[in-house]
Amino acid sequence: MRKAVVILALLLAPTAVWAQGTLRVLSVRGPVEWKAASGRFVPVNATSQQSIQVGDQLKTGPDAEIYLGLPDGSYMVVSENSNFTVQDYWSGNLKSIMNLIVGRVRFYIQKPGGKPNPYSVKTPTALIAVRGTVFDVIVDTDRSTEVQCTEGSVKVENIAGDEVVLDQGFKTFVRQCERPFMPVPNDAPMNKNRVVTIRPKSAPAGDVNGNASNGVLAQDNDRRNRISNPAVGPNSTTTDNSPQRAKPTLTFP
Prior knowledge:
Elements: H1 2-20, E1 23-29, E2 32-35, E3 42-43, E4 51-52, E5 57-60, E6 65-69, E7 75-78, E8 83-86, E9 90-91, E10 94-108, E11 119-122, E12 127-130, E13 134-139, E14 145-151, E15 154-157, E16 163-166, E17 170-174, E18 184-185, H2 219-225
Parallel strand pairs: 10-11
Antiparallel strand pairs: 1-4, 1-6, 2-3, 2-5, 5-8, 6-7, 7-10, 8-10, 9-10, 10-13, 11-12, 12-15, 13-14, 14-17, 15-16, 17-18
């Protein structure tokens, strides 16, 4: 009976490790600090093989770097001036690794048996879903996120669920309240200060001076935005077959 209990414990050991969400410190260079969920920041000992648990926070100083390993052989390299919180590995169908608050981390995710390894990484503006790959996540001080895929592919989405898929050699950028940028090659410049100009869908090209003219909303967009006007009914029109908003009546003294 005792032998059976020992065998069962060995079989369940990997599951227990995943449930705890342990990251193992593999190597440390420079000033790195660690804080338990209910403690204070203390230096990480480079020779202690320390474990980082769910809820723990870790930050690196100038010129610092730390390697952290996962139980399946995957690992990550946390660069200088980074700050993140370890998250529970199992979150729905994804194994959530961390919430990167600021800084840069490169991930090396293994593919056990050649199958996708469903890890995910969170940032203030993005969720990155991994399929077994090498990729970098960089979070700026303004909370925007850049993701660069070196091998394999990753899916990047914002908090509203808008997403792009990065193939090998491509990157994207996500700012608050914006869709992810269209992927571009990793070595291509990216205009992070883009300004998105929104024009009516059915607007004419412009006037004689080249200025964009004011157009009417497209019919499908108008239906979504037009409210029911009790004075004229929800199907008020200005033409025979073009539903539009009821036009206001202006009164002057």
